[in-house]
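Much of our argument rests on the idea that a fold can be written as discrete symbols. This step matters because it turns folding into a mapping between discrete strings. The record that follows shows the chain in one-letter code together with its fold in token form.
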Amino acid sequence: MILACGPMATISHPAFRILLERFGGCDEYFTEMINAGTLLTGGQFENYYINPAPVPEKIVWQLTGHDAEHMKEAARVLAGLPGLGIDINMGCSAPDIYKYGAGIAWMLKDRAETLAMVRAVRSVVPADKRLSVKLRLGDDNFTDAGFFDFCDMLVGEGVELLTLHPRTKKEKLVRSPRYEYCQKLAERFKGRLPVYLNGNVKDSASYENALSRCPDIAGVMISRAAVQKPWIFRELDGKRFLRQKDSVVPEPVEGPPDDPISIDMEELCLSYIDLIEKYQPPEFWKTRLQRFFTYFVQNFKFSHYAQTQFINAAAQSNEALRTAIKDFFEKCPEERNINI
């Protein structure tokens, strides 16, 4: 079973991947959305978006945009970088993305326009790189026939992997994902191409539930749960092992891979700030750190207190955040170490 880390804005960058690799990592890392137009015009921050560190061979570049020609030319650029391939975002339903004509808007446009875009992108992706699509079920009035016909079109145009987040455009995370559509999609293309499931996998129990309901899927994509628990892929696959703290290469520490690990949470928090400073521009530090700690503090019993302290401090400076982290663990020493 392939384990993939999903694309997350402000999260899916080298600093986060390095953190995950400390705990064994996963099989594939989807990047945060890369805007086709901005990439082509040479935006000042694009080099940060296309940095494949620390494991270029595991990278999947996720591409977004509203214009077919821009999508094609940006795909050409990304195809020249290291990595497994390119993923077209057809699943993001954030209003600013959808109204821009990107993300899930490609599922709702005239079919001929979407087909032409996919065909254009496919034409510049070389045979040794994979073309994939991450998508949803469609709008709230979607039909089974319309959804599966759309997927047939994608596959007919050369898409080689489908990742389904089985919710509609307006359905939020509080609604249970419709896993049956992941299984139906996997059955439909069995022997032709893999299908990944995305949605609500957050621990071993939910992982096993997803696999029991979708026995024919080839992979599971995890996003937010990996931010809260960077060790989740190790939790789901006991064969993965801990990396040395400062290592980004795959040498294990001494001892069998299934030995319990004690995590120094203060050290982890402080080291993540160091990684952000190394791999992200100063203009991004606040948003990247605030987004990460919003999820990560859910590990703590006093999570609300930690979140308030960390988020407010991150808005001031990285040094203020470091001080807030040290103060938190001084006041709550029982939160310092956890075992996995």
About this structure: Confidence is low (pLDDT under 50) at residues 244-256. The longest helix spans residues 265-279. The longest strand covers residues 59-64. The chain is about 45% helix and 15% strand.
